[in-house]
Request: fold
Amino acid sequence: MTIEPTLHPLAAPLSAPARPELTGGRRVGVLLSHGFTGQPASIKPWGEALAEQGYGVEVPRLPGHGTSWQDCNTTTWDDWYAELSRVFADLRASHDAVVVGGLSMGGALTLRLAADHGDAVAGVVVVNPALATARKDVRLLPVLKHVVGSFPGIANDIKKPGAEEHGYTRTPLKAAHSMFRAWPGLVSDLPRVTAPLLYLRSTVDHVVDGLTQPLVVSGVSSRDVTEVSLPESYHVATLDHDLPTIVEETAAFVRRVTAA
Reply:
């Protein structure tokens, strides 16, 4: 008998129906993905604010997240991407247009969606996405993941006092290695991303270093690229001081790229 991992009380997905009467008569969907070792709570305020404006919002829980780092170590990039792909297909089937977005690894996963689905993606919004790292210890993961199960966690890089991501306190190394192995293929496929791109980047980020932004901005084929700085937030900007900016910029972007 398989025992299901205990779910964190805040880890339930967010699902809000579209209200076309607020969006010019069109049903517009927005798919948002949380990051590695995070959970839906880290981006729900972003999703809830967009739902209030009439967009059909889905914030799924990626497999192995919102439970325990040991559970996450039994999952891979392919599992996380499969879940996002499933939700995207459902949104695409029931909406006139769909925009995808994500925080950190969620941003990388949604760029993968945009590379794979072309014109079916109306736009991409990324907040501090992760596609590269300057950390040298990553090179040791193929060996380390068999010796130790985890490293200290990366959660709660938030400037705002009292904010809580509710992510894992440990970083599962087998799962992390799976993510790092997926990055080179995604970077190679960035030219397949043609959808409009909104890139939101914290001025100070203690989790994702400066390598990713130039890779993405110069790598995509999108002719419509907007970069916005988030000067008052750290990595988890969706729970930080710049959340109003993220919501305002995302709403304006979604409205523009999904206009009939």
